[in-house]
Amino acid sequence: MKVLANVNLCQGHARCEDLCPQVFGTDAVEGKVVIIQPEFPDEMEAQVRLAVRNCPEGALRIFSN
């Protein structure tokens, strides 16, 4: 599975990073989401989905490879 971010929608709340720091980070300059690990293993799917659902702007999406 793969996660993608729309940085134009991101407002920098960093909820995704709080919930799943292995996959999501924050850009030091703009404070927006950075995908650290775009392709993640199946065992992390629940954690990544939780982070995606908690994005207030809906800036994150999960896709199958």
Write structural notes for this entry.
- The chain is α+β, with helices and mostly antiparallel strands and 65 residues long.
- It has helices at residues 15-19, 45-53; strands at 2-5, 24-26, 33-35, 60-63.
- The chain is built from 2 helices and 4 strands.
- The strands form 2 sheets. It has a two-stranded antiparallel sheet.
- Strand 2 and strand 3 (33-35) form a beta hairpin.
- The protein is globular, with a radius of gyration of 10 Å.
- The termini are close together.
> What string gives the helices and strands in order?
EHEEHE
Count of helical segments?
A: 2
| Mean pLDDT rating | 96
* Beta strand %: 15-25%
Biggest sheet layout: 2 strands, antiparallel
Taking pLDDT < 50 over at least 5 consecutive residues as the criterion, the unreliable ranges are none
Can you give the helix content as a percent range?
10-25%
Count every beta strand, where a strand is a DSSP E run of 2 or more residues: 4
> Over the alpha carbons, how many angstroms does the gyration radius reach?
10 Å
Q: State the end-to-end CA separation.
A: 5 Å
How do the strands line up in the largest sheet? 1-4
Helix-strand makeup class = alpha+beta
Gross morphology: globular
List strands and helices in order, with pairings:
Blueprint: E1 2-5, H1 15-19, E2 24-26, E3 33-35, H2 45-53, E4 60-63
Antiparallel strand pairs: 1-4, 2-3
Give me a quick take on this structure.
This protein is an alpha+beta fold and 65 residues long. Helix content is 22%, strand content 22%. It has a two-stranded antiparallel sheet with strand order 1-4. A two-stranded antiparallel ribbon has the order 2-3.
